[in-house]
UniProtKB/TrEMBL annotation:
Organism: Lamprobacter modestohalophilus
Membrane disposition: Single-pass membrane protein
Name of the protein this chain belongs to: ATP synthase subunit b
Purpose: Component of the F(0) channel, it forms part of the peripheral stalk, linking F(1) to F(0). The b'-subunit is a diverged and duplicated form of b found in plants and photosynthetic bacteria.
Family matches, as InterPro entries: ATP_synth_B-like_membr_sf, ATP_synth_b/b'su_bac/chlpt, ATP_synth_F0_bsu_bac, ATP_synthase_B_chain
Family according to the record: Belongs to the ATPase B chain family.
Length: 156
């Protein structure tokens, strides 16, 4: 065998093999590589979009938290204001009730005082009448009158 013929036949076989590979093997491999590259690119783009959406979501969550804190602060302020109003109203009501009770107590005390004065006047009148009766019953004697007046004073 001739080395040139072997070399040429190997070159022809290699060229046929390369042509076969280029025609039938290379396109599916390139297609698979292109699809894989496309999927990787889409995955990276989706990851980037996900990170952007995550950042947007984080910002929205912070805004919502700020809004919720502000709303909670408003609610607390309104509750405090209402508490103060209720307390002031309760104080006014209690003061009014205390004034009413005080007025009623003063009126009752005044009424009791008037009753006691009237009762004292009636007793004084009765004692005066009794003393006058006793003075008129006895004869006129200065020492007897003095003893009677002392006895009358003790009864008062």
């Amino acid at each position: 065998m001739n080395i040139n013929l072997t070399l040429i036949s190997q070159m022809i076989a290699f060229a046929i093999f390369v042509a076969f590979c280029m025609k039938y093997v290379w396109p599916p491999i390139m297609k698979a590589l292109d699809e894989r590259a496309t999927k990787i690119a889409e995955g990276l783009a989706a990851a980037e979009r996900g990170q952007q959406e995550q950042e947007i979501g984080r910002q929205k969550a912070l805004e919502e938290m700020k809004a919720a804190k502000a709303k909670a602060a408003d609610i607390v302020a309104q509750a405090q204001k209402r508490y103060n109003e209720v307390m002031d109203e309760a104080k006014r009501d209690a003061q009014g009730e205390a004034d009413r009770i005080k007025t009623a107590a003063h009126a009752e005390i005044e009424q009791e005082t008037n009753r006691a004065r009237e009762e004292l006047r009636e007793r004084m009148a009765a004692l005066a009448v009794a003393a006058a009766e006793k003075v008129l019953e006895k004869e006129i004697d200065a020492s007897a009158h003095k003893a009677l007046i002392d006895s009358f004073a003790k009864q008062l």
